[in-house]
Automatic annotation (TrEMBL):
<comment type="similarity">
    <text>Belongs to the ThiD family.</text>
</comment>
<comment type="pathway">
    <text>Cofactor biosynthesis; thiamine diphosphate biosynthesis; 4-amino-2-methyl-5-diphosphomethylpyrimidine from 5-amino-1-(5-phospho-D-ribosyl)imidazole: step 2/3.</text>
</comment>
<feature type="domain" description="Pyridoxamine kinase/Phosphomethylpyrimidine kinase">
    <location>
        <begin position="13"/>
        <end position="258"/>
    </location>
</feature>
<dbReference type="InterPro" id="IPR029056">
    <property type="entry name" value="Ribokinase-like"/>
</dbReference>
<dbReference type="InterPro" id="IPR004399">
    <property type="entry name" value="HMP/HMP-P_kinase_dom"/>
</dbReference>
<protein>
    <recommendedName>
        <fullName>Hydroxymethylpyrimidine/phosphomethylpyrimidine kinase</fullName>
        <ecNumber>2.7.1.49</ecNumber>
        <ecNumber>2.7.4.7</ecNumber>
    </recommendedName>
</protein>
<dbReference type="InterPro" id="IPR013749">
    <property type="entry name" value="PM/HMP-P_kinase-1"/>
</dbReference>
<keyword id="KW-0784">Thiamine biosynthesis</keyword>
<dbReference type="GO" id="GO:0008972">
    <property type="term" value="F:phosphomethylpyrimidine kinase activity"/>
</dbReference>
<dbReference type="GO" id="GO:0005829">
    <property type="term" value="C:cytosol"/>
</dbReference>
<keyword id="KW-0547">Nucleotide-binding</keyword>
<comment type="pathway">
    <text>Cofactor biosynthesis; thiamine diphosphate biosynthesis; 4-amino-2-methyl-5-diphosphomethylpyrimidine from 5-amino-1-(5-phospho-D-ribosyl)imidazole: step 3/3.</text>
</comment>
<keyword id="KW-0067">ATP-binding</keyword>
<dbReference type="GO" id="GO:0008902">
    <property type="term" value="F:hydroxymethylpyrimidine kinase activity"/>
</dbReference>
<dbReference type="Pfam" id="PF08543">
    <property type="entry name" value="Phos_pyr_kin"/>
</dbReference>
<dbReference type="GO" id="GO:0009228">
    <property type="term" value="P:thiamine biosynthetic process"/>
</dbReference>
<keyword id="KW-0808">Transferase</keyword>
Amino acid sequence: MNVYKALTIAGSDSGGGAGIQADLKTFQELEVFGMSALTAVTAQNTLGVQGVYPLPVEAVVQQIESVSTDLGADAVKTGMLFSAEIIQAVAEKIKQFQLNRLVVDPVMVAKGGAPLLQQEAVHALKTYLLPLATVVTPNIPEAEVLTNRTIRTLDDRREAAKRLYDLGVQHVVIKGGHDDDGEEAVDLLYDGHEFSYFTSKRIETMHTHGTGCTFAAAITAELAKGRTVKEAVETAKAFIQAAIEDELGIGHGHGPTNHWAYRKTFVR
Ligand SMILES: Nc1ncnc2c1ncn2[C@@H]1O[C@H](COP(=O)(O)OP(=O)(O)OP(=O)(O)O)[C@@H](O)[C@H]1O
Ligand SMILES: Cc1ncc(CO)c(N)n1
């Protein structure tokens, strides 16, 4: 049996909707063996983030070493990295173990506004990690921080994608979840030559906790199987659409998406 393996380097969300939990559930649903290197523990639920406890840099490094020296990973995803020190150490390990299918989800704040990345770490993200990335998947506010530009129109988004590409990333996906003007949720992909658009019906719901993590994890799982970036984004878009649509309705705030919805609609 050919077993595909993916590693997520991210924070824990005790509420199970985002972070490492969303990543591992998504890998499993897409039939990829999931492994994890935890960067931080958050006490979190659908109402917000109650606590953030980063792990020592050595702990992050050792987890990546343990996985890489034995099991190996066909693709890697990074999520919440919290500090410049963790980012630099992760980038070193990615180079050392030649983990060259890398999806960077540049997580900065939780939906309720709690910071998951220290402000001074943005520079480290751009300098050390983005040049190693196969794909970077910012939402609109993250793309604004990374490019230092305001994004209002689709033209602004295309320009931001070009600037992110110039930092050395191979593919840029700027997600449209935060652009709630229209009837559609449009994600844009730039590969240095052309733009592709992934469009779905925008769903009216407050239960979108962890959509970004889930979407990037689905891209990672598909890259682990050897799919092209375009194919991977297409599957990820269908996966997240199903997960938002088939609402679980749990928790008292911004609830999680349904990670098993895609299997009911699309698999076999
Ligand atoms: N209301 C919605 N209806 C349909 N698709 C959506 C909706 N909201 C987000 N999406 C899709 O979900 C994916 C994630 O986008 P989004 O911009 O919400 O990420 P994010 O802000 O990083 O998420 P989070 O920080 O909660 O993890 C994208 O594919 C986007 O198009
Ligand atoms: C641990 C963690 N990672 C990422 C996000 C972003 O959704 C979150 N809320 N929590």
